[in-house]
C-alpha cells in the first residue's frame, strides 16, 4: 500500500518537530475524507421522518378530509381570480399574499359613471360608489366551523352554502338620484354601502 522509497529517521526529534512531521505525514498519507453530511441535511432528514410518522398516525378518512380541504382552498383561490400558484413560492411573495389576504373588512369608495354601475341606465353623471372589501378570518363562528365540517364529510352535498363569513354591507347609504342621457330622472336605492361587516 505504501511506497518502499519512503525513509524514516530512527533519531528522536523534538516534540514540535515530531508533531509537525506527524501532521504532514498524516495529511500526505491519509486517504481523502468521506463526505460529511451537513447539519442542514440532517435537520431536513429529521423533519421528513417527523412528517412521515405524523402522516402514519392519521387514518385514511382523515387524510382524505385533509386533501379535500386543500383542494377546496385551491379551487376557491382560483375562482376568486387568483392565478395558478407555483409549487415552491418565494418567501417574499408568500408574505405579500398573506398580507393581502388578511386585510380586514372595511368600507371603500370609487367614483364611477352611472353607466358603469351595470343597472341598465345610460348616463354620463358620476356617483360615489361605496363598497365592502376585506377578509373575515377573525369572525368565524361555531356555525361556520360546523358547516364546513358537514361539507367536508359530504353530509351537505348539492346545496350552495358558504362555510365562512363574508364582508358585506350592514347598512346602505342614501338613495342616489340622477338624469339619464334622455333627461329622465331616476332614483336608485340601496346602491352604496354605508357600513360593512362580516355576515
TrEMBL record:
GO annotation, cellular component aspect: extracellular region
Keyword Signal: yes
Coiled-coil ranges from the UniProt annotation: none
Keywords of this entry: Disulfide bond, Growth factor, Secreted, Signal
Stretches for region Disordered: 1-42
Compartments where found: Secreted
Principal location: secreted
Protein name: Neurturin
Molecular function per GO: glial cell-derived neurotrophic factor receptor binding; growth factor activity; receptor tyrosine kinase binding
Domain TGF-beta family profile: 94-199
UniProt function note: Growth factor that supports the survival of sympathetic neurons in culture. May regulate the development and maintenance of the CNS. Involved in the development of the neural crest. Might control the size of non-neuronal cell population such as haemopoietic cells. Acts by binding to its coreceptor, GFRA2, leading to autophosphorylation and activation of the RET receptor. Heparan sulfate-binding is required for signaling.
Subunit text: Homodimer; disulfide-linked. Interacts with GFRA2 coreceptor and RET: forms a 2:2:2 ternary complex composed of NRTN ligand, GFRA2 and RET receptor. Also forms a 4:4:4 tetrameric complex composed of 4 copies of NRTN ligand, GFRA2 and RET receptor, which prevents endocytosis of RET.
Amino acid at each position: 500500500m505504501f511506497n518502499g522509497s519512503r525513509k524514516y529517521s530512527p533519531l528522536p526529534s523534538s516534540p514540535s518537530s515530531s508533531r509537525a512531521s506527524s501532521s504532514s505525514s498524516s495529511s500526505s498519507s491519509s486517504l481523502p475524507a468521506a463526505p460529511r453530511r451537513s447539519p442542514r441535511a440532517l435537520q431536513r432528514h429529521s423533519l421528513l421522518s417527523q412528517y412521515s410518522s405524523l402522516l402514519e398516525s392519521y387514518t385514511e378518512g382523515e387524510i382524505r378530509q385533509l386533501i379535500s380541504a386543500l383542494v377546496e382552498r385551491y379551487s376557491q383561490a382560483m375562482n376568486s381570480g387568483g392565478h395558478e400558484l407555483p409549487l415552491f413560492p418565494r418567501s417574499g411573495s408568500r408574505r405579500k399574499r398573506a398580507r393581502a389576504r388578511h386585510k380586514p373588512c372595511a368600507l371603500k369608495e370609487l367614483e364611477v359613471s352611472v353607466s358603469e354601475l351595470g343597472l341598465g341606465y345610460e348616463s354620463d353623471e358620476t356617483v360615489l360608489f361605496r363598497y365592502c372589501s376585506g377578509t373575515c378570518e377573525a369572525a368565524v363562528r361555531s356555525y361556520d366551523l360546523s358547516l364546513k365540517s358537514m361539507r367536508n364529510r359530504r353530509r351537505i352535498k348539492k346545496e350552495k352554502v358558504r362555510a365562512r363569513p363574508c364582508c358585506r354591507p350592514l347598512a346602505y347609504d342614501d338613495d342616489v338620484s340622477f338624469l339619464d342621457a334622455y333627461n329622465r330622472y331616476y332614483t336608485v336605492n340601496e346602491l352604496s354601502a354605508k357600513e360593512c361587516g362580516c355576515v
